[in-house]
């Protein structure tokens, strides 16, 4: 008995907060809100209201305000794509990406099944070499060879991807390559159309009237800190996935045209300070035909799963960089602030470096630090102002989107989210027992929302941990079966 009393003094702040939440009077609703986050790491806290009025009868048909919530706020999932930020939301994103890629390969979600018969390939485009790096080399027979440094590295060796000789490694070339990777891809898609038109013996005008090239791509960082792209490229008829391309346009022709386009695509970057640089694709190019469901090694399902996995990865996991911008906010990276008298004052926040965190103190590998340093230095040059290298130094220069697709590829992520939102709304409607399926213009919804904070209260965090545990358990049972059966 005495020991139980003692416990009250060591009770954790989280448990104390949980007691407080219970005292608010509606713990069920608190639990319900947290469970609805499905384990989100840092939900967005909102305050606000929404009212739906029927303007013909001037009656309120539905209203909601966070004033009625026990904690006075509404939680919504953070929706972050990156697994390093929110594992739960990144799983939702991965599932959406999977369905999007899958629909573009085998139909479904408003995409006809006939897309399966269109020529389709899965391509990996890489960056060229900027100097020798430590790596695991194998012969075509699978025998592991020594790295040029004389050692045989393990999979988790931190030196993998770092230069054998950092002093001669072309850091400027590497950062400029990352910074132009998105533009190089865009130019590649133009060249690809030209090369296809040439092989088909068509003018560009005739080509555009006969077929369309659709693609979906994801960016991934290699250990050496350079971006590369994985892409699904598909040939469609003139109206996109609903129509078939001409029979002469085969997967084999597409493969050859991709090889031609990769060889010819280049961007020239001019600079008096660092010299001119030619941005080109690397020699490593992988093109594989995607076979119809079931047979062959690269099926629709495999490609969709592959792309979905890459879509949630971030530069942090792959190259070991940091996931926040390094620009000092108060001075916008300039290192000084300009007063009303137009005199410049050294920024107190960064002591003139312009960086939110001192680069020598970043917990990253030396190679990554040197990429960041190079990006920052190049950011000072007026010829590279458009690349916003300070803002993207933590991404080692790359500022493109992680996953993009052409409009004709398949359904969109927004469309998938709309479906989910509509479903949630339908649930909410079912809850208040009204049938509002007749969505005519007489219903007007008015709302106002403000952002409060991100994250849970300590007590809610306990509940979220329980939710995560339950979800993991449910997953495990789904894959392994119920242990006691
Ligand atoms: Zn989240
Ligand atoms: Zn080595
Ligand atoms: Zn500053």
Unique bound compounds: zinc ion
Based on CA atoms alone, the radius of gyration comes out at: 27 Å
Strand percentage lies at 15-25%
* Integer tally of domains: 2
Q: Shape from CA axes?
A: globular
As residue ranges, the low-confidence spans are 425-440
- The averaged pLDDT comes out at 83
Order of adjacent strands in the largest pleated sheet: 11-4-8-7-14
Helix and strand content put the structural class at alpha+beta
Strand count, sense and closure of the main sheet? 5 strands, antiparallel
- State the end-to-end CA separation: 40 Å
Report the helical percentage: 25-40%
In total, the number of strands is 15
Count helical runs. 12
| Succession of helices and strands | HHHEEEHEEEHHEEHEEEHHEEHEHEH
